[in-house]
């Protein structure tokens, strides 16, 4: 629906364009109605998307939605959460105790990678540990930390699991010297 512009003004002046009166009366009203309906449809669609986003976000969080603005800013990493279901289970606070037991059992830190795999850590995690600056002792400590944090496929962190993992690296003598506390 086009409106026709005419260069002849009824007053006789040349060069001025004007809308013919029938265009104003019929076509503009139809365009106005069409634009109003289109805008209403777009608004309804956007509201639907916003509601859907809110519902999906609430379902993903499975809790009430709270403000995302932190109350305090800290550069320190969050403290690890220690949840023990088994009273014999070790936690992140036992890193030094585990390293001391491995050293006393004469477990060679050079086998840190095999130990990590046996404890349930995945290859990419161990690759990341191996790319850090340090020596075998540092890598063993980081491996034990990740194990005690139950990262990757770690299910349990007990002395028995550690003993079996050391044994699976081929160091049966060291495994026998690890106490079950």
From TrEMBL:
Keywords: Membrane, Transmembrane, Transmembrane helix
Listed InterPro entries: DEATH-like_dom_sf (IPR011029), Death_dom (IPR000488)
Superkingdom, natural source: Eukaryota
Chain ranges passing through the membrane: 33-55
Domain Death stretches: 110-181
Alphabetical GO biological process terms: signal transduction
Name of the protein in question: Death domain-containing protein
Organism: Amphimedon queenslandica
């Amino acid at each position: 629906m086009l409106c026709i512009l005419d260069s002849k003004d009824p007053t006789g002046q040349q060069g001025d364009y004007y809308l013919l009166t029938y265009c104003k009366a019929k076509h503009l009203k139809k365009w106005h109605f069409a634009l109003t309906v289109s805008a209403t449809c777009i608004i309804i669609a956007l509201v639907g998307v916003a509601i859907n986003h809110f519902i999906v976000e609430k379902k993903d969080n499975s809790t009430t939605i709270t403000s995302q603005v932190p109350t305090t800013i800290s550069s320190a990493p969050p403290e690890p959460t220690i949840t023990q279901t088994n009273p014999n289970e070790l936690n992140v606070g036992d890193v030094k105790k585990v390293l001391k037991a491995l050293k006393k059992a004469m477990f060679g830190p050079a086998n840190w990678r095999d130990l990590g795999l046996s404890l349930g850590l995945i290859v990419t995690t161990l690759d990341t540990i191996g790319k850090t600056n340090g020596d075998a002792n540092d890598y063993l400590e980081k491996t034990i930390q990740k194990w005690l944090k139950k990262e990757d496929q770690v299910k349990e962190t007990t002395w028995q699991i550690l003993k079996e993992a050391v044994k699976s690296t081929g160091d049966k003598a060291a495994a026998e010297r690890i106490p079950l506390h």
